[in-house]
Design a protein that fits this description.
- The chain is 60% helix and 0% strand.
- It is an all-alpha fold and 63 residues long.
Length: 63
């Protein structure tokens, strides 16, 4: 049995997920190529990207 058919995933749902994935890739490209990153060098750029990657890891009212 095909794995997706056992999960009852419809063509409509597959299409929606494909759209979400395309949007995520588009937004990722916008973030990664934003001119802000050119204002940072070396370790500062790495630290900023790492902080951005983990911005939602904290628990609290702003998370």
């Amino acid at each position: 049995m095909h794995r997706l058919s056992s999960l009852r995933i419809t063509e409509s749902l597959v299409g929606r997920f494909a759209g979400y994935r395309a949007r995520i890739l588009e937004l990722t490209a916008q973030v990664l190529t934003h001119p802000y990153w050119e204002t940072l060098e070396g370790p500062d750029r790495v630290a900023a990207r790492t902080a951005l990657k983990h911005v939602h890891d904290t628990v609290g009212p702003d998370a």
